[in-house]
Amino acid sequence: MAFVGRKPTNAPLTADDIPNGIIGAADLASGISGLITWQSVQTTGFTASAGRGYPCNTTSAAFTVTLPATPSVGDTIILLDYAGTFDTNVLTINPNSNKIEGGTGNLQLTGEREGTSLVYIDSTQGWLASSGINEGTDALSIAPYSVDFLVVAGGGSGGAGVFSTGGGGGGGAGGYRTSTQSVALGTVITVTVGDGGASPSTGSTSNNGSNSSISGSGLTTITSDGGGGGGGAITAVPANGYNGGSGGGGQSTGGGSGNGGTGNTPSTSPSQGNNGGTGISGGPNYPGGGGGGAGAVGVDGSGSAGGNGGAGTASSITGSSVTRAGGGGGGTYNNAGTGGTGGTGGGGNGSASTAAAGTAGTANLGGGGGGGASNGTRTNGGAGGKGVVILSVPTVSYSGTSSGSPTITTSGSNTILQFNGSGTYTG
Q: Is residue 71 within 8 Å of 94, Cβ to Cβ?
C-alpha cells in the first residue's frame, strides 16, 4: 500500500506510489520496482544495467552485451533483435564472471527477431531467461569457444645394421602440428593417436609410425603423419631413410651412402617435421644418419659416430614446457664407434654394439627409434615412440564428457586433456 505521510528517502517506490495508477516518463526514470526503462537502439558492445530494455541492431556487425558485475535478485534486462539480423550477426551475452542458466560461459542470441528477458535469480543459476520469442524455444545458446590442439604422430623405427658393412639410420620423429579452432556446443571431437613404428624383425626393413589426428563436425581435420623409418637392409646396397612427418636417417654400408628420408611428407604449413641425415660410407665405422625431428634435421653420420637425431619442438600447452618429436640417432658398424644421440623430445639413441639394439623412442612423445649396429652380426633398430594428442579447453566451457580415458589436469584458466590413446571429447 502507499505510504501515509512522508515516505523514507531510502525506500524503493512501488506501483502504489503512482498517482491514479498512471505511469509516466518520470516514473520510469525513478526506478520503480518491476518496471523496464527502454533505451535507444544499440549498435556496438555495451554493459547493460538492470531494469533496462535494449533494442540491439547487429546489421553492421556482431557485438557483445556484458551483464552487470554485481547483480541483485530480481534484476531484469530485456534484449531484442531490432533489425532481424541476429541470425547473420549474432548477439553475444557475457555474464561478467557470474552465471547464465547455471553456466559461466558466454551465450548467444542467434535467431532472426529473437528476444529474451533475463532475470537474476541467485549465484547458483545466475541469470535465467524468463521468456524467449520467435525462432527457437530457447532464445539462448552456448557460444562457441576456442580449443588449442597439439597433434603428434608415432615415430618411425630405427633401421637395422647390415651384417658386416654398416649402421642403420635413426627413425624420424612423428609429425608435429598445432591448431586453435572454434568448437560449438555438442561437437564430438574424434581423437586418433598413432603408434610408433615396430622394431624391424630379422631380415626386414624398418617401419614408419602411424598417423595421429583430430576431427569433428565444423572442425578442420588436423593430421600429423607418422615418422619415416630409418634406412636398414641386409645387403651391401645402402637403404635410404623413409619419408614421413620427419624423415628417417639413411643407412651406411661398404657399398655406398644412404640418403635421409624427406620430412614434412605430405607437406603441411607450418612444416610438421624435417629431413633425416645421410649415412656415410666409409670405414672403419660406417655411421648411419640421424632421423629428422620436429625442430631440426637429422645429422649426417660422421667419422666414427652415427648422426644425432634432430631436436624436437617444445610446447607449454599442458602448463609446463615439454619437448616432443625428437629424431632417433644413427647406428655404427663396430664396437669402436659411437651411436648417434637421440634428439631432445624422445628420440632413441643409435647403437654401437651388436649386443644391444637401438633404443626405442619415448612413448607419447612421438620420438624416432635409434638405428642398429653391426659387426659380423646384425642388430635391429629401436621401435618408434607412440604419439599423443592434447586439448586445452577453457575451464568455464569444459563439458566433462570424454572417452578413451585421457589424463585430465588444469593449468590456469584451462582444462587439459592428454590422450595417450584414441578417444573422443564432446564440446
A: no
